[in-house]
Model the fold of this input.
Amino acid sequence: MSSSNHATIGGGCFWCLEAVYEEVSGVTDIVSGYAGGHVQSPSYRQVCSGTTGHAEVVQLTYDPSGIEYQDLLEVFFTTHNPTTKDREGADVGPQYRSIILYHDDEQRETAESLIENLEADGVFGDPIVTEVEPLDTFYRAEDKHQDYYERNSSQPYCQTVISPKVAKLRKKHADKLQGQATSPSS
Done:
């Protein structure tokens, strides 16, 4: 069995998710892309039209000895609003929907259980609209979308939208950041 696993999630702009998970311990690779749609090999322009059915997503490669899948999802739910359909902040359209694309039944069960617990605890005050679906095909986004925040952190969008999400990650999940002593059971 492989010593790494994959997780595929979407919660608004993929640049935001990529920047957040860049700091999470146990995440070994992040690829921005598209999933959940009906057009083969879509372009960014096609996905932005809102007609392909795809969501902007990131596909994470992670080492389960460094972080568990549930921890990745806890970061996901902390750093975006899972109660707004087809929207994250000012980004509006089905490509920005909140979605977890599971790779196996264990991931599906983990995602559904976490959502159920968050709902039962009334964490968000509004119903969670995050879709939980099997991953069919993941398409890598164009190169200009990879490592976007790292290359463009001083741009206004990055400063006003992405930087606050990274700050929230650092505040709420300091124990899951690279350079911190973590274990999957903590």
